[in-house]
Amino acid sequence: MQQDLDHLKKKAVLYATLENPGKYDRRGSLFSVHDPLISTIPWLKAHDTSYCKYHSPFQKHTTVLSNLGLNLLPPCNAHAPCAHHLNHLGLIEKASPRDKNSMPEMLIHRILHSFIETAALSNATAFYVLDFFSGWGSFKAAIKTFGQSNAYKEMSDNIINSKRTRFTRLDFILRSNSIVTCTEFDCTRYRIGTKQCLKRGRWEDSAVLTDPQHVTDYTTTPFQIETIVCDLIRNEDLPQGEKIAILIHASPPCKTYSKSGLHYHRPAHGALSPLASQHDSLVTDVLNELERLLA
Ligand SMILES: [Zn+2]
Fold first, then answer.
1. Is residue 124 within 8 Å of 245, Cβ to Cβ?
2. What is the per-residue pLDDT across 169-225, written as a single tens digit (0 to 9) for each?
3. Ligand 1 ion: Cβ-proximal residues, 5 Å cutoff
4. What is the pTM of this model?
5. What is the CA(193)–ligand 1 centre distance, in A?
6. Measured in angstroms, how far is the CA atom of residue 108 from the centroid of ligand 1?
């Protein structure tokens, strides 16, 4: 498997974003629990921001770990307030589950902007997002609207004007406004999505090709990210010298890392809840897998 991956990686550039709400250093938050492992992965840098900085009516602080220079807006506070001037709609705890758990569209557009601009420097001409815990489908929805966003316009203008595009094909693809293919793998719902392929100048839907035997419960091993990444690379037939860029995005389930469940799932004294132990091994698997894939 590793040999297969090393061989395929010559055709690919890989990036990752790992998102989880809450301050990095709060006791029980995902990143503070897993900090001993995270701190051994030097290319994973933490970027803090708030949902309200990206037009969400709620002030929800979040952290994105990534090997991309994301350039996110600083978290909302009295010194750096959002456009609501701290008049937020209310507590995020009172929001609908969808609002509570979906990343704002503009924040995802910002991430896609960094992803494509960075990958274009490595001669990427095909761009995939593998959303590994696609739950509410926020990445898929934001990818659909990305082509009409200001972030897209800014990104494609930057690339075209910088004359970094060695390939006129990338110019053409950038002007098509539909360059990112979303593949979802909701490992809690056993689902694999469809992808869009450019065939003879037209976008067509086709199924994500991965062996159904790899679609297993997320608590079982071996872990699945590598399999899907290998399948995506293998199935992309690009002209010589052009690369496929894959952004692996993971927003792991956060129930046992949230402030509200802290006393029950991660008491200051005493044992973790069974679900908290399961989530810890899931996140450890994700981090180990990312380290191996992106090293
Ligand atoms: Zn705010």
1. yes
2. 777 788 776 788 887 765 544 334 455 556 666 666 655 443 333 333 444 445 567
3. 52, 59, 76, 82
4. 0.84
5. 34
6. 17
Burial class of residue 123 (count of CB atoms within 10 Å of its CB; 0-12, 13-18, 19+): middle
Residue 101 CA, ligand 1 centroid: distance in Å: 17
54 CA → ligand 1 middle, Å: 9
Q: How far is the CA of 84 from the centre of ligand 1 (A)?
A: 6
Handedness of CA 84, 87, 88, 89 (dihedral sign): negative
Structure tokens given for 144: 């659909």
Q: How far is the CA of 63 from the centre of ligand 1 (A)?
A: 15
Q: Where are the domains of the chain?
A: 2-45+60-70+97-294
Q: pLDDT by residue (tens digit) across 109-146?
A: 999 999 999 998 888 989 999 888 776 778 888 999 99
CA 219/CA 213 separation, integer angstroms: 15
